[in-house]
Specification:
9 helices; alpha/beta; Rossmann fold; disordered C terminus; 5-stranded parallel sheet; single chain; about 250 residues
Length: about 250
């Protein structure tokens, strides 16, 4: 069975570019945790209380799970967030501040649901520099504690292979660096095998935000499309994931 790779991490600009480039490099189908068929309801439920909002995302995960069950058995899948996020945010919002308030590591709440397709691996992307800068902003100081609790909850989830990528620690300066490092880690674990010299799906040059497997492969006559996409994605990455890098 082809690998199911889930990307998790804070909601920062630049992550979508990382997911898009990574899926094209792996030749993978790119799926979002909220499927297209109910994505128009996302804004409605995001404004609801946590219990109702969590129920919406739980249902979204099971619809996504059905898509994974029916997915062709020859193509890898990259998922932008999955059950991990739903459970982590639900737990943290319920217990309040403090890692000590989390359920113990051996609690069954961290078990993966038996009726939901399980990922081959989960890649947790973080940026220490971004979190350190959040400490300087009074109104956002509580957010760093929240993010730390989310990350700890991710790490406690069992029956999964984890890969942690710290953009600051690894010296990543743009989306290409992040994608390359993730691919290296995936190859180290024998999850994927990628030819780095021929890894970019041509259709991503034309339509970087559309799942590449639904697009015709047609190279433009000029490289301006690629240059523009590179510049935009790297700018978003530098400003949000690696704020210390000048643009």
């Amino acid at each position: 069975m082809p690998p199911i790779i889930v990307i998790e991490g804070p909601k920062l600009k630049g992550m979508e570019s990382v997911c898009s480039r990574l899926s094209s490099s792996l030749g993978a189908t790119y799926l979002h945790s909220v499927p297209v068929c109910i994505r128009h309801l996302k804004k409605v439920f995001d404004s609801q209380p946590q219990l109702i909002r969590g129920a919406f995302y739980a249902i979204s995960n099971y619809i996504l799970g059905q898509e994974l069950f029916t997915h062709p058995q020859t193509l890898p899948v990259l998922v932008d967030r999955y059950w991990n996020s739903t459970v982590a945010h639900g737990i943290v919002n319920e217990v309040g501040d403090g890692i000590g308030n989390l359920p113990p590591k051996n609690h069954t709440i961290y078990d993966w649901p038996v009726d939901l397709p399980q990922p081959t691996t989960v890649v947790l992307v973080s940026c220490r520099k971004k979190l350190r800068e959040m400490k300087k902003n009074g109104p956002k100081r509580g957010k760093i504690a929240y993010e730390n609790m989310i990350f700890e909850t991710f790490r406690r989830m069992r029956n999964q292979s984890w890969i942690e990528v710290d953009c600051t620690k690894q010296g990543c300066t743009d989306t290409t660096d992040v994608v390359s490092h993730i691919i290296d880690r995936l190859q180290d674990k024998n999850i994927v095998s990628v030819d780095s010299q021929a890894s970019l799906c041509p259709s991503m040059i034309l339509h970087p935000k559309v799942p590449h497997d639904t697009l015709p492969v047609e190279m433009p006559s000029t490289s301006n499309h690629q240059l523009k996409f590179d510049a935009m994605s790297n700018l978003a990455f530098k400003s949000c994931l690696c704020p210390s890098v000048p643009s």
